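A common beginner's mistake is to predict each chain separately and then try to dock the pieces by hand. The better habit, illustrated here, is to supply every component at once so that their relative placement is modeled jointly.
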Amino acid sequence: MFHFESDYLEGCCPQILEALQATNLEQTLGYGEDPHCTEAARRIRYVFDCPDADIHFLVGGTQTNVTVISALLRPHQGVLCAESAHINVHETGAVEHSGHKALALPSPAGKISAAQVRAALQAHHSDFSREHMAQPGMVYISFPTELGTIYTRQELEELHQVCQDWEIPLFIDGARLGYGLEASGCDVLPKDLPRLCDVFYIGGTKQGALFGEAVVFSDTRLSEDFRYFIKQNGGMLAKGRLLGIQFETLMNEGLYFKLARHADRMADRVRAAFQRKRIPFLVENTTNQVFPIVPNDLLPRLEENFGFERWQIVDEGHTAVRFCTSWATPESAVDELGGFIEFNL
Amino acid sequence: MFHFESDYLEGCCPQILEALQATNLEQTLGYGEDPHCTEAARRIRYVFDCPDADIHFLVGGTQTNVTVISALLRPHQGVLCAESAHINVHETGAVEHSGHKALALPSPAGKISAAQVRAALQAHHSDFSREHMAQPGMVYISFPTELGTIYTRQELEELHQVCQDWEIPLFIDGARLGYGLEASGCDVLPKDLPRLCDVFYIGGTKQGALFGEAVVFSDTRLSEDFRYFIKQNGGMLAKGRLLGIQFETLMNEGLYFKLARHADRMADRVRAAFQRKRIPFLVENTTNQVFPIVPNDLLPRLEENFGFERWQIVDEGHTAVRFCTSWATPESAVDELGGFIEFNL
Amino acid sequence: MFHFESDYLEGCCPQILEALQATNLEQTLGYGEDPHCTEAARRIRYVFDCPDADIHFLVGGTQTNVTVISALLRPHQGVLCAESAHINVHETGAVEHSGHKALALPSPAGKISAAQVRAALQAHHSDFSREHMAQPGMVYISFPTELGTIYTRQELEELHQVCQDWEIPLFIDGARLGYGLEASGCDVLPKDLPRLCDVFYIGGTKQGALFGEAVVFSDTRLSEDFRYFIKQNGGMLAKGRLLGIQFETLMNEGLYFKLARHADRMADRVRAAFQRKRIPFLVENTTNQVFPIVPNDLLPRLEENFGFERWQIVDEGHTAVRFCTSWATPESAVDELGGFIEFNL
Amino acid sequence: MFHFESDYLEGCCPQILEALQATNLEQTLGYGEDPHCTEAARRIRYVFDCPDADIHFLVGGTQTNVTVISALLRPHQGVLCAESAHINVHETGAVEHSGHKALALPSPAGKISAAQVRAALQAHHSDFSREHMAQPGMVYISFPTELGTIYTRQELEELHQVCQDWEIPLFIDGARLGYGLEASGCDVLPKDLPRLCDVFYIGGTKQGALFGEAVVFSDTRLSEDFRYFIKQNGGMLAKGRLLGIQFETLMNEGLYFKLARHADRMADRVRAAFQRKRIPFLVENTTNQVFPIVPNDLLPRLEENFGFERWQIVDEGHTAVRFCTSWATPESAVDELGGFIEFNL
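With all components supplied together, the output reads:
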């Protein structure tokens, strides 16, 4: 039975395993100060067209979010984010554990708008009791969002503009960045990202690496002493080269984007299969996550044949479910799922 | 011009000033280990009928909330509270600064219900991703609430029952406790409180003291090492006797309740004056805060004659405002306000 | 029996009680935004000759230390201090609770030197593993120290110079500031302080107030958003005017210094009494704390007649004890103690 | 040129690379809830003879230390440890960042004794100001220590006894556990560890794995909700199976111990080579780290031929250096080093 529960069910793309094998007995300094990290950073600067960016490698997403946010905020500040944001919902309060309030804004379809952010900043500023409230000190969004939706370039520009107007940084969680950039209809290019925000990260864990997230500070004033923060937050891998080797590989000849493109195309086909049966979706999106709303009586049979997640109860008779594709999803599995939908839904 | 902006505009009731004067040159040990603190605790145990309670004195409300919550939760836990709760809105993220997420529930009229709490606990428990979410570890309510509303005894019993079923503590913020207990229609008695929750506090700052909050642990397992927490959170007053002297005085011959009763009766009269003019209220309540919704064109004249707070814009033409009474509000000021309303609204 | 255990055994100087009485029914805004706080700040700026300083009032010492340190450091930074520093020993780990390591330096006689600080900064800077260590981000000293010793102007200048060379702030805990400034042999003047450090505070609690510490930021870049920090750390007194009224009084006609001078002169006489009997001291000092080393067999009789603290076991037969004087110590008590020493030691 | 700077200069033992290869396309649940983690835990329970232990896998040492300490302490508590402890020196204040004071004890040779711990606990308990001090809430030691020394079984038993007497947990950092257990003269067996402490971890990163530390709670009351803590501290690896696969491999047929034994034997030979030339050592030890004290004029030539760390300046003419061996150190490199020492020192 093939599993579509998430995009981190398998190990890693074969190229990475090969690279690990090939470099295994090299002796290198630890903690990210090795030639592979240097080379990976060089390639990222090239691919994302940010020759002056400061680049750091961490192990996982929650760790990266907390470490960046911890470096960007002063203690009395909170982080504006979507109500559905990963940091607000699925990180066991890690941001609060580090001392900061998540200032959540309503987020239909997982997104927040420049208008919302501006209103929140204005409201705080004009409140006579503002010193009794956590001060909004940065904006966090994810691209794609938790619901697999993406921001348009225009939307990102507007968000960034608000942040610049109010002199606070914009941070983009790119745990699934490639799936967003390769989504049909996406008008954001890799080279746009560094100028559309102050810091973002390129997710490896969910996109073909064993693990690893590459943080890109386009505003290098924000990364002062960032290595101290990585260490303090438990993210400084002793064998840091493992991160370098993986991103070196992923950034080689567009591999990162190829893997993402494959996943997105597989998701498009899953989406189309449901559409043909007029199954509605919880949210319209074009990335590697598909959220069909399925009649409950079909769930057991679907679960007998495929792995996927029950996401949300929609009404008494229907449940939204999630199918994820990844770099590792074979066409045959998607064909099989398509066939099943065709004949059973 | 008389001011109704808040219930902490003046110094303190004269009895406290006298007691400070009378004891001024006594030499006592510091940090709350003096005879006045002992006597104040004894009187509280008597008045609230909790002979075994553990009692501590702190300086202010935010400090008390953070210190108690910090003592009750483990790091991965959050605190269930009303969206409008003081800890969620008006403490500059102090609870998050101490590491914990405020798990806010919708709170029409400032209150949350046992059903809401039960649902939240059940939802967390049955979520497969619960380890990725802050665990609800306690419930915080205030009595009266931020909107001056009060819980019935039945409601408190139900809330406490849910907490006991789920083995988490219930903490009642009583910054304005007396105004609640003396409110018309309140069916909660002082002696009910210790058995209706695990820890609560008796507010002094807003009820006639210069400052001070008395924390009452009816579940004394929760107060282990609490003095360490007070010190760590900056709440251990060197001259702790100042707190003892004040609560000794307030708990003498029912003074605390008399002062509160006066404020509530003054508020009733303010409320009645608005009602007579068919002015609606933002919320129905019977404590010392009154929230009439006033036509905007009357605001300037009202503000020329009385001090009060603009609370919330209701619609284009109307604003909810807040009038607070206190132990110090003279009848004459209420009469004057009543007269003004009678002839101008 | 008269007690010399500490300098916070009594209430407050009579002038403060009178001022509280006189202002009791004034209606003022809360949270330190009242005319008394404004006037108190004005007087402090005048007395300490720092017309541009930013001044804030907090309730107690631990609270003040944590709040200032929290505002000055980034998360990866620690605070250089004496091993015997109050923040390192007697604040229940409050600084660590707020996330920062106390970087303690050996401190004979309670003091640290510019050379020590420079060496620590240099050592950190030149360590290849520095990113694995808490970065020294500020220096904390107290004046007088925990052992009642004081820094010379020269020593303070040198400490400040190191801090400026390394671009980190110098913070002086002045919980007993007056006792230091009035000590015989002290060559530091009130007007020196603002230029000898970046932020300091003027202790009220131990010097004649009921409570209260006045923080003076001579480097006003450091106090940005400081009121948020006060609130977040539970130090924003609702009736903030209580702090204003007290410091207004203390800063009137040199009262603060007169009270301190009295205490220091009383301590000088206690010291002289021990010296006449060739009793050695744990530390040489000239402020309001006296640390004679007493033969153990004399302790019981001394304790029968006077209150004081056993401070430290020196050897099998001797114990260092502490006698504190204060604004409230009557000459008669000191005479009595002097007589006792004369005839019994 | 061969490098002896640390024991994490290479990738991993070939068996782990093979296992990663073999399992790469398996689809498994994330976050450590996969069959490989289950099997790895089963093997650890068998090898360390602790059938009821609760076992968790984390990525790195600092992360593991902070997560365990965070789970074991209440906010007012600190952790007793050696002055030279990793948590006290080389984790960028991570333990303090999580809110706790490191209570450092003098540690000649990296070790602390039961007598020291007992004295510290007794001193805290009998101090009248104890509520003003961080309460010792646990003991942290490492085995081997930072200086490569090891505790005897007797010493561990005594430390554990103190902890049990005072009802606080003993936590052993085993980042280099295998090197300790296989050291000549070590009388501690794997099966002893679970009964000699309450929680310990088995280091993978420095002992042949790519990364990973296996935490073993022999006292399972301490591990309640530990997965929440792992997530909150950023240590919950999405592809948790990577940890399972690695420890499954290391715990298979004694591989973990064989790798450690090899390293220790290589270190013994390095040690002997220095001893033959009567070179003294900074510390006597038998694990994989060797600390010879080398005349400064020999350093340049040594550095031309071998990689190692300058550890500590001993006197004007001598420097202590560190040579580390590992699972990956070839005999030939040790022979070459031995020859060099023979003919050049």
